[in-house]
Design a protein that fits this description.
Blueprint: H1 5-20, E1 25-26, E2 32-39, E3 42-48, E4 51-56, E5 66-72, E6 76-77, H2 81-88, E7 100-110, E8 115-124, E9 127-140, E10 143-153, E11 173-183
Antiparallel strand pairs: 1-11, 2-3, 2-11, 3-6, 4-5, 5-7, 7-8, 8-9, 9-10, 10-11
Signal peptide: 1-21
Domain Lipid/polyisoprenoid-binding YceI-like: 23-183
Keywords: Signal
Length: 184
């Protein structure tokens, strides 16, 4: 029995296409997720030191892309150990009970050259909401660089309970900015 070239080539092509659609590996050393907010009307930027991102992205088929991000809430670094400990407490992130904030995409759509619109579910401190935000994507040193910003209201996620609900000290609006570098 002999094999014909047609089915063999089709099988090899299918394997190659499946391999190119493999999830991308995040370069966490060159990636960052930050939160920017105002405290007493002064802008503050804090960096999450621990997070993971799972990205399945093929620029030829962006609508088939998927993304999920998990952030260690206790890893927020405000530049001061006492403040870092404070935001991990129950009134803020309650990191003991809710150690992770997460985002899972439900839809990724092209929005022009190098631009996508991402929709999905954001969960922080046990509260979930559907969100949508613009995302840019471009090649950087042979890898895909994803950048974007998502404004949220912290009170919608019960971040800053008790006396911290007063927005005259810490504003309600928080902008989550991200820069994720990922490749094969």
């Amino acid at each position: 029995m002999t094999l014909t070239r047609g089915p063999l080539l089709a099988s090899l092509l299918a394997v190659a296409l499946a391999a190119s659609a493999a999830p991308l590996k995040t370069d966490t050393a060159k990636s960052a997720i930050t939160a920017t907010f105002k405290q007493m009307n002064v802008p503050v930027e804090a960096k999450f030191r621990k997070f993971s991102a799972q990205l399945d992205y093929d620029p030829a088929k962006p609508e088939a892309a998927r993304a999920s991000v998990d952030i260690d809430t206790a890893s927020l670094d405000l530049g001061d150990p006492d403040m870092n400990n404070e935001v991990a407490k129950k009134d803020w992130f309650n990191s003991a009970q809710f150690p992770k904030a997460s985002f899972v995409s439900s839809s990724i759509k092209p929005a022009g050259p190098g631009k996508l619109t991402v929709t999905g579910k954001l969960t922080i401190k046990g509260k979930s909401a559907n969100v949508s935000f613009p995302l840019t994507v471009r090649l950087d040193a042979g890898k895909q660089l994803f950048e974007g910003a998502l404004p949220i209201g912290r009170l919608a996620y019960n971040i800053g309970d008790g006396e911290w609900k007063d927005t005259s000290m810490v504003a309600d609006e928080v902008v989550i900015r991200f820069r994720v570098l990922a490749g094969q």
